[in-house]
Design goal:
CATH topology: Glutaredoxin
GO molecular function: protein-disulfide reductase activity
CATH architecture: 3-Layer(aba) Sandwich
Number of domains: 1
Domain Thioredoxin: 1-106
Shape: globular
Number of strands: 5
Number of helices: 4
Helix content: 40-55%
Protein name: Thioredoxin family protein
Order of helices and strands: EHEHEHEEH
Keywords: Redox-active center
Strand order of the largest sheet: 1-3-2-4-5
Family: Belongs to the thioredoxin family.
Largest sheet: 5 strands, mixed
Strand content: 15-25%
Structural class: alpha/beta
Length: 128
């Protein structure tokens, strides 16, 4: 299940999130949005709690669509600490999206492991 976010909840759920967020700007009439949805759910399952996945209906949230200058749907934004780190749009197909998601997953899961290991090492050092 993908968390649905609106203009009212965007700041709290995305910009202030303690974990990176993949924002899927979509619309009910968008055929490609429906096609990529299973890939996004698979991505979410593989990443677990290390990356949050949210959906934004671009038609119902016009201010957000304008703020992030959407040119086409779907548009995916990877937001980390309130800053857009990656923008994915203009997909040439499912494989194109799958490769981009795989790169994001590897980058953030590896970063999370390094961060967690350094915290563990720091705690072990302090307790010695």
């Amino acid at each position: 299940m993908v968390l649905s976010v609106s203009e009212r909840t965007f700041t709290q759920e995305v910009l202030e999130s303690p974990v990176p967020v993949l924002v899927n700007f979509e619309a009910p009439w968008c055929g490609l949005c429906r096609i990529i949805h299973p890939l996004l759910l698979q991505f979410k399952a593989q990443c677990g709690e290390q990356i949050k996945l949210v959906g934004v209906n671009a038609d119902d949230n016009f201010k957000l669509a304008n703020t992030y200058r959407l040119k086409s749907l779907p548009t995916l934004l990877l937001v980390d600490s309130g800053i857009v780190q990656r923008r994915l749009e203009g997909f040439r197909g499912r494989e194109d999206l799958r490769l981009a998601l795989e790169e994001i997953k590897l980058t953030y899961i590896n970063r999370s492991k390094i961060y967690n290991n350094s915290n563990t090492a720091d705690l072990e050092y302090r307790s010695a």
